[in-house]
Amino acid sequence: MSKILLAEDDDFLRTTTKTILEIAGYQVFAYPDGQQALEAFPSILPDLIVSDINMPLLDGYDLLEGVRKLPAGEIVPFLFLSALSNRGDVSHARELGADDYVFKPFEPDELLTAVRARLERRRISELFDTRQAHLQTIILLANVIEARDIYTRGHVERVQNYAIELGRALNWSMDDMVILEYGALLHDIGKVSIPEAVLNKSSSLTSEEFVIIQKHTTAGGKIIEGITHLREALPYILYHHEKWDGTGYPEGLQGESIPREGRLLALADVFDALTSQRPYHQEMGFQDALELIRREAGKHFDPQMADVFVRIREEKLEQ
User: Which candidate in 3, 69, 191, 222 is catalytic?
Assistant: First the structure.
């Protein structure tokens, strides 16, 4: 439930505004002047402030200035309520950092529309800030992986790009795409547990060494499962080496029992491996790699996803 701090000196309007907002599902803390509202701010930490301009003790402008000086108040949206319609008042409010201006008398729907807009803007801003902070951590981890594995420099970034293009072509939601973005970056995080002598071996791996390499999926899962904000990326890490026909690892899942995240990333991961120089094979041209993926649809890869992947990659080649 979003918390709203309301400052309004008119008793009737304060009660009416509080009632409108509470009926709409908001938790409202109402005060008759700016001074009391400012003093209450640190304990409430509201998601939005709705304030009159002309009030005793501390007016709306001073309340806004006071809130903006507080560390927790720098990004809290501020909505002014006022009978003043002078353009200069509006300009002054904007200069101080007010987010919107609703004139009295107002209809309930007018107030609620402004409140919802401000709260939604804050939600999006917080999501963006959180996503950026997460991505910085994830990119650091991905760089650590690549620093240890001389054969996969640039692999993580390329796989992410291929995966994002496929997710978009499959019309995945925005929330799913955010998880895909960092899941692709983290898919090989478990390689931090693989000895460098095995990871960077210049000749083909022995069967014993291949078993060690296979463990990077479950090792990565153990690393991520304890990090709450990264846990949703687990399917990318655990299942990108599963195969449609059940011959993959770590669990030998088959068909649609493989989480779709793993099925999607398998295409991006294999395509980049095929088109990159590795100790165990020569790099392929893009068209040859796409032909291989087409042949492996229904064996290694989800056939529907493989069709979409081949189509969008061929479209890129034609550009």
Answer: 191
